[in-house]
TrEMBL record:
It comes from the Bacteria. GO terms for molecular function: peroxidase activity. The keyword Oxidoreductase applies. Gene3D superfamilies: alpha/beta hydrolase. Residues 33-286 form the AB hydrolase-1 domain. This is Haloperoxidase. Keywords: Oxidoreductase, Peroxidase. InterPro entries: AB_hydrolase_1, AB_hydrolase_fold, AB_hydrolase_sf. It holds the Pfam family Abhydrolase_1.
């Protein structure tokens, strides 16, 4: 399997509440039921290629680049990156791409899932007016540094491991990627983001996306996540729509226990799916993810037809 080519789509330029320009694309039939896709940190719209190629045959698929990623604007000031911005940007995309009164299935991978939960915490009325269901894939609501598996250490050294992990992630996230250091950098990214049994092209593609993300953007978002996803978790209280949770058994960046916690805390759990592979289930297990997203969309549209 390899990465499919993106189908032709329509570009939508979205203006965030603070004026930052966000890049979004719409694929598939204009009258199709909408599925919105929010990618993870250091990725871009193209990371959803498997899902877009499959789902856009039947649905209107909307994908966007977070600020500091892809073709969206990269603010230079650190104070223009926060969980508030992450939530507000998702809301701006929904406002610009959904028709009046229209609802969607909203799916997020990794930081994209954090965008959804942050949005639900800050915009509860918009959850009810925009979402029929959500899918949270390889994501977390807290305890980021406690969960991330950079190295195995004795329990008595857990606090040291957490501090070290924070330093490593903040530093590496904002570092420029010189060609001469590509080998070790690629291995480090693959160690965190890709399962050991993934096809080689997956690790190469994930590193290409990482290296192409502006250091200012990935560095700022790394700090936001490290500094905010601590012991106090993002509340799921307002996420009252059907919620699909997908985790991966060998995810070293956001391990499966993070997905299990979300499934346990979700007020309206539609399903919990544990896949094999590493952090990038949308690339490593695309057929499984596609089937789950189709099933979720079909369940809400079927319920609407009955009602």
């Amino acid at each position: 399997m390899s990465l499919p080519q993106l189908p032709s789509g329509r570009t939508v330029e979205v203006r965030a509440v603070d004026g930052v320009k966000l890049h979004a694309q719409v694929f598939g039939p204009e009258d199709g039921y909408p599925i919105v896709l929010a990618h993870g940190i250091t990725c871009a719209i193209e990371v959803w290629a498997h899902q877009i190629a499959d789902l856009s045959g039947d649905y209107r698929v909307i994908a966007y680049d977070h600020r500091g990623h892809g073709r969206s604007e990269t603010p230079r000031s650190r104070n223009r990156y926060s969980l508030n911005h992450l939530a507000a940007d998702l809301d701006a995309v929904l406002d610009a791409t959904l028709k009046p009164g229209e609802h969607a299935v909203i799916a997020g991978h990794s930081m994209g899932g954090i965008a959804i939960t942050s949005w639900s915490q800050r915009y509860p009325n918009r959850v009810r007016s925009c979402a029929d269901a959500v899918a949270l894939i390889n994501t977390s609501t807290g305890d980021l540094l406690r969960d991330v598996q950079l190295a195995q250490v004795p329990a008595r050294l857990t606090a040291t491991r957490i501090r070290t992990a924070g330093t490593v992630l903040r530093t590496f996230g904002s570092t420029r990627m010189p060609k001469m250091a590509e080998g070790p950098n690629k291995r480090f990214v693959a160690q965190l983001a890709v399962g050991r049994d993934a096809e080689p092209w997956v690790a190469d593609f994930v590193y290409q996306l990482f290296a192409a993300t502006p250091p200012a953007g990935r560095g700022a978002w790394t700090r936001v996540l490290v500094d905010n996803l601590g012991p106090k978790h993002i509340s799921l209280r307002n996420l009252t729509v059907p919620t699909l949770v997908i985790g991966s058994a060998k995810d070293r960046l956001l391990p499966i226990n993070a997905s299990r916690r979300i499934a346990a805390d979700a007020p309206n759990l539609a399903g919990f799916v544990e896949l094999g592979g590493g952090h990038c289930a949308i690339l490593e297990r695309p057929d499984d993810v596609n089937a789950q997203l189709r099933s979720l969309a079909e369940s809400v549209t079927a319920a609407q037809r009955i009602s």
